[in-house]
Amino acid sequence: MNVRRRSSVAALAATAVIGVAAAPAVAADPSPSATTSAPSTAASGLYGSGDPQFDGVWRQSLALLAQDSAGVVPSSKAVKWLTDQQCDDGSFAPFRADPAKACDAETMVDTNNTAAAVQALWAVGGHGDVVDDALGWLKSVQNEDGGWGYSPGTPSDANSTSVVIGALTATETDPEGVEKNGKSPYDALLALALPCAEDKGAGAFAFQPDKDGKLLANADATAAGLLGALGKGLVTEAGEKTDAASCADTDEPTREQAAANAAAYLTDALAKDGHLKSALGGSPDQPDYGNTADAVAALAAQGGADRAAGPLAWLKKNAGQWAEESGPAAYAQLIFAAHATGTDPRDFGGTDLVEQLNATGPAPQGAKASDTATGKAEGEDEKKDDSPFGVWWYVGVCLVFGIGIGFLISNRGKGQQP
Question: pLDDT tens digits, residue range 183-203?
Answer without folding.
Answer: 999 999 999 999 998 888 999
